[in-house]
Prior knowledge:
Layout (H helix, E strand, L loop, with lengths): L6 H33 L9 H20 L9 H13 L2 H13 L3 H25 L5
GO molecular function, one term: fluoride transmembrane transporter activity
Membrane topology: Multi-pass membrane protein
Subcellular location: Cell membrane
Amino acid sequence: MTEPATTGERAALYAVIAVGGIAGSLARYAVSLAYVEAFGSRSIDDVPWATLAANTIGCLAIGVLATSLSAHSPNWWLRPMLITGVLGGFTTFSAFALETGLLLSGGFTGQAAVYVGATLAMGLIAVQVGRALAGGSR
């Protein structure tokens, strides 16, 4: 992405990232609510599957968007709005870290190991699948 040249362009960039962040955060919360509705809890067997699902979906979307959205698009704001804003708000490393810490402090070492391993594996796989779906290797 070419950096915005003027103060007005920078302000517009910050605004679209913020709007994207709001949308992503609300979508992330909706995933948690959907899990509670479907399964009665955000976690099953003490593994926080809702967070894993959000992070995996976000990684897939980042793979698709990073590959398919040109850094030199005429819509210069679209890539940072979607990747930094929407998907930055949707995925959640801080929740991952908190939930892992809670599992460990609660004595759920095995579940913590499954969660950490699944998060890393699913994230890496989802990004690569997203890139492949978008037809590129950028």
